[in-house]
Write a structure and sequence with these properties.
74% of the residues lie in helices and 0% in strands. It has one domain. 48% of the residues are buried. The mean pLDDT is 83. With 181 residues, the protein is mostly helical. The longest helix has 24 residues. The protein contains ten helices and no strands.
Length: 181
């Protein structure tokens, strides 16, 4: 099975990064760096939430509403304000009151300002949920497999973070989630 991280990245080609950069008013390289930090952070939050049986069940249930159809029109998502409403709601469920801390860490590591990071993460959250929803529909994920698959994808993302940014991400997530390895 393709990792969640690889599947999300498959949705984020150069044209999509360019479109995100335009919406953010940011340099494509900075946007790409921010995506490299934001995706593992989102996956870490999802993994943390799914580590408990009730969290995994709640996420599995939420994926019924995220069937992956959003992936068929990313241009509409990104062109229509970046999914801020739905993306913000998803991020609220993932991070709760810790959202600002995660966004600050991504901003610090990428050079984007707080508003740009918040908007970028709100763009990415529905894409991540769409990928998860499509994987569920294709019978690649269920409540039992979700925690392990999310943990593996989160770990993969942290290992692949460019340069010294992995330390920044690890310290932010360690501070947010408490127990970092």
């Amino acid at each position: 099975m393709t990792s969640i991280l690889d599947a999300v990245r498959g949705q984020l080609g150069p044209e999509t990064i360019q479109q995100m950069s335009g919406a953010l008013g940011a340099d494509p390289t900075a946007t790409s760096n921010a995506v490299s930090l934001a995706l593992p952070a989102i996956l870490a939050g999802l993994s943390q939430n799914a580590a408990q049986p009730q969290g995994a069940a709640a996420l599995d249930n939420a994926l019924n509403a995220h069937d992956g159809s959003i992936l068929d029109n990313l241009g509409g998502l990104l062109g229509g304000g970046g999914g801020g409403g739905i993306g913000g709601a998803i991020l609220g469920h993932i991070f709760g009151g810790r959202r600002g801390t995660v966004e600050q860490g991504v901003g610090h590591g990428s050079g984007l300002n707080a508003g740009q990071v918040a908007q970028l993460m709100a763009m990415l959250a529905p894409i991540v949920m769409g990928v998860l929803g499509r994987m569920k529909q294709n019978k690649q994920l269920d409540t039992n497999r979700l925690p392990d698959v999310l943990r593996q994808s989160h770990e993969q993302g942290e290992q692949e973070v460019p340069g010294g940014l992995g330390g920044i991400l690890g310290s932010v997530l360690g501070g947010v989630f408490g127990n970092k390895n």
